[in-house]
Amino acid sequence: MFKKVLVANRGEIALRVIRTCKEMGIRTVAVYSTADKESLHVRFADEAVCIGPPPSTDSYLNIPQIIAAAEITNADAIHPGYGFVSENAEFSQVCAEYGIKFIGASPEMINKMGDKATAKATMKEAGVPTIPGSEGLLASVKEGLRIAKRIKYPVILKATAGGGGKGMRIVKNPEEFQKAWDDARMESSAAFGDDGLYLEKYVEEPRHVEIQVVGDSKGKACHLSERDCSIQRRHQKLVEETPSPIVDDELREKMGQAAVKGAEAIGYEGAGTVEFLVDKHGDFYFMEMNTRIQVEHPITEEVTNFDLIKEQIKVAAGVEISGNNYFPKMHAVECRINAEDPFNDFRPSPGRITNLHLPGGHGVRVDTHVYSGYTIPPNYDSMIAKLIVSATTREEALVRMKRALEEFVIEGIKTTIPFHIQLMDDKRFKSGKFTTAFMDSFDLVER
User: Fold this and answer.
1) Are the C-beta atoms of residues 286 and 262 closer than 8 Å to each other?
2) Which of 148, 259, 318, 331 has its CA 20 to 30 A from that of 69?
3) Cβ atoms within 10 A of the Cβ of 374, count?
4) Tens-digit pLDDT profile for residues 237-291
5) How much is the pLDDT for 115?
6) Which pLDDT band holds residue 199 (cuts at 50, 70, 90)?
7) Percent above pLDDT 90 for the chain
8) Quick one: pLDDT at residue 62?
9) Domain segments of the chain as ranges
10) What is the pLDDT of residue 161?
11) What secondary structure, in 3-state letters, does the chain show?
12) 346: closest CA among 383, 379, 380?
């Protein structure tokens, strides 16, 4: 087992990893930018190293600085959390060159799954259902129009290096294609430095359902059931739950088998997520694979009693997994609490927290790095906490979530708590019958 793990991240996920390492008897190193000097992950790690100024490019994305921090502290492994360098093949490769274990996917796995066109082709070859579309990247508008005519409109253009909804455009007819093509390429180039696009049939009335997988170095993989991530705004997840209200035992079995088949086909090692779109007929299609731990991993932990961070670390250290699949025994819901004003187009609201009260009680978990007096910097993602509840049924979980949200007090900044409270009362949400377009018609009322 590792003796010392450097956590190449910040905020709640850094603190989450540090907690598990402490329980495993592993010493920890926090890295931080000058903006995060007072963050809890810095305070609770055994050692801390400043790696640069606030901009991510100068700190949390600065590979030489992170490696230097690992070397001077004699860390024998690095856990990247999610975001930043967690799916950076170059960083994974550099870690290997310096004899530091990267607790995540290999450079080859990241490259295979990081490029969406390659990932789709790989999964299709493994027998995983995929959405009809282009065989790789589009060479021209003319090729795109020809494929769109064959698979029928609506279609969707997607950036091969994309994420978070960047470089995506829905095209409803041939007349819209050229503009959508130009806009998607421009946005993708600006966001990722890559303007490559591929095309797929646009799945109408979809649900976003993902399967948590874990693989070991022996080629064995298992799944820990599904998470429903359909409540999104501009392709950014707001609420996640498990099990999905639309997934029955038969569909769960099929999706789980497909995800495991895909993971084993590429020899995947570590914790990852295979994401699917499920249409109104119950057919499912591979969308992408995330080669890292997910923001929403706590709800899977709550319903399976399984520490995913610990499993990641054990697998990276060479421990073989059982290969047993895990199924939900309860229901869990996660609300992402962001420092945003939900009544002002969800604009970021950084600043000093003047008062904080965290909810508690049976079946309530809060993952956060903030505290009263903490100043939220404007330089990073606006998520400041994850509120997770679990109960025996979905109905009980939603009631518990609303109660916990009403107890959650954060003063000094705007947060998305009022949005989540209203969501818990929404009839469509409570029914479980919604799609990824839910937020397009959700009426948020300022009270």
Assistant:
1) yes
2) 318
3) 18
4) 999 999 999 999 999 999 999 999 999 999 999 999 999 999 988 999 999 999 9
5) 83
6) very high
7) 93
8) 97
9) 4-103, 132-201, 207-441
10) 83
11) CCCEEEECCCHHHHHHHHHHHHHCCCEEEEEEEHHHCCCHHHHHCCEEEEEECCCHHHCCCCHHHHHHHHHHCCCCEEECCCCCCCCCHHHHHHHHHCCCEECCCCHHHHHHHHCHHHHHHHHHHCCCCECCECCCCCCCHHHHHHHHHHHCCCEEEEECCCCCCCCEEEECCHHHHHHHHHHHHHHHHHHHCCCCEEEEECCCCCEEEEEEEEECCCCCEEEEEEEEEEEEECCEEEEEEECCCCCCHHHHHHHHHHHHHHHHHCCCCEEEEEEEEECCCCCEEEEEEECCCCCCHHHHHHHHCCCHHHHHHHHHCCCCCCCCCCCCCCEEEEEEEECEECCCCCEECCEECCEEECCCCCCEEEEECCCCCCEECCCCCCEEEEEEEEECCHHHHHHHHHHHHHHCEEECCCCCHHHHHHHHHCHHHHHCCCCCCHHHHCCCCCC
12) 383
Q: Is 292 an active-site residue? A: yes
Identified catalytic residue from 16, 185, 252, 292: 292
pLDDT tens, residue by residue, 141-176: 999 999 999 999 999 999 988 776 789 999 999 999
* 132-201 CATH fold: Dna Ligase; domain 1 (3.30.1490)
| CA distances to 8, 109, 291, 341, 422 from 113, in Å | 21, 6, 7, 34, 37
The first and second tokens of residue 108, run together, are 């080859």
pTM assigned to the model: 0.89
Q: Report the pLDDT value the prediction gives residue 281, as an integer from 0 to 100.
A: 86
CATH 3.30.470.20 is held by the domain 207-441: yes
Please state whether the peptide bond connecting residue 154 to the residue before it is cis, i.e. omega within 30 degrees of 0: yes
What is the rounded CA–CA span in Å between residue 319 and residue 322? 10
CATH number of 4-103: 3.40.50.20
* Orientation angle between helical segments 63-72 and 89-97, nearest 10 degrees: 30
Give the span between the Cα atoms of 431 and 345, in whole angstroms. Answer: 26
Q: For 65-107, how does the pLDDT look when each residue is reduced to its tens digit (9 = 90+)? A: 999 999 999 999 999 999 999 999 999 999 999 999 999 999 9
Measured between alpha carbons, how far is residue 422 from residues 364, 398, 426, 447 in Å?
Answer: 19, 12, 7, 10
The confidence score (pLDDT) of residue 246 equals 97
Q: Check residue 184 and give its pLDDT.
A: 95
- Which is it for the CA torsion 214, 254, 297, 124, positive or negative? positive
